[in-house]
Amino acid sequence: MPPPKSPLDDLRREIDHIDDTIHDLLMRRAAVVERVGVVKGQIEAAEGQVSGNPQTPIYLRPAREAVILRRLMARHAGSFPAMAVTRMWREMITAFTRLQGPFAVAVYAPEDRRGFWDVARDHFGSVVPMTAVNSPAAAIRAVSEGTATVGVVPYPAEDDADPWWRFLVSSDARTPRVVARLPFAGRGNARGEDRDALAIALVPHEPTGDDRTLLGIELGHDLSRGRLKDHLETSGLAPTYFCTWHARDPSGPSIHLVEVADFVDHTDPRLAAFAGRLGEIPVRINIVGGYAVPLHFSHDARKV
Ligand SMILES: O=C(O)C(=O)C[C@]1(C(=O)O)C=C[C@@H](O)C=C1
């Protein structure tokens, strides 16, 4: 006699069928991502030929990743926790990116401060090669030299006397840019530092529809922070965060890092308006990068 049918059998068969469908779709997505990688490689090779400066392609597109997650969160419904969906997609997206080309992460996580490690792992997944480095400068170096695709460094602190971000205030195309703010998709059970982290990479600053931009502003003459803020505000670039670094040599430069609640690139007329307002004061403005505004989860993490 066959064993009596358990009331679970049909439900489990349904789950097996759903798992097969999810798995099939993952394998299908992988094939499409590989085709995207080929096209990106062709586009970058053509651009390298035009500029006479071919570079190893970097496939990461943090802006697109942010748009994907925001779109999924906007359609999410039901009892499955929203934050669990984003965790799965974060693990998947880096695994997919690695189908296109090499990918490694250098995280500022000295032995006595491991907090950013969890935050980086949550964002880039548990399979990607990840190395701890002892200073933000080492993370920047790893990205510039190509030993890491992404560096993870602390969100700038106003009172940092030797801030890492000043190394990113440069117009050199080989200077890494800020490309994401972490955590992007909720903190979960990650240990953290007292502040967020920023991801840096050799990837262009691209809009997502809800962005912050970091401007590095070098002035040829002294100007009070108050006056500088006024000029920024009247040019439509009201700062949401502001740090200043003074060179030790008093005749040396002061550089300001200004965060603006919008997407700004070099062609933005507000930058020209701001430079115009400064009149005789020489100014150099660099786009240090920017990031998609992270997702906000409600307390029970079910819904964004
Ligand atoms: O849209 C792209 O550019 C892709 O390469 C695809 C994809 C993805 O898996 O969806 C992978 C890597 C990028 O960082 C962004 C998105």
UniProtKB/TrEMBL annotation:
<dbReference type="GO" id="GO:0046417">
    <property type="term" value="P:chorismate metabolic process"/>
</dbReference>
<dbReference type="GO" id="GO:0004106">
    <property type="term" value="F:chorismate mutase activity"/>
</dbReference>
<keyword id="KW-0614">Plasmid</keyword>
<feature type="domain" description="Chorismate mutase">
    <location>
        <begin position="2"/>
        <end position="104"/>
    </location>
</feature>
<dbReference type="Pfam" id="PF01817">
    <property type="entry name" value="CM_2"/>
</dbReference>
<dbReference type="InterPro" id="IPR036979">
    <property type="entry name" value="CM_dom_sf"/>
</dbReference>
<protein>
    <recommendedName>
        <fullName>chorismate mutase</fullName>
        <ecNumber>5.4.99.5</ecNumber>
    </recommendedName>
</protein>
<dbReference type="InterPro" id="IPR036263">
    <property type="entry name" value="Chorismate_II_sf"/>
</dbReference>
<dbReference type="InterPro" id="IPR002701">
    <property type="entry name" value="CM_II_prokaryot"/>
</dbReference>
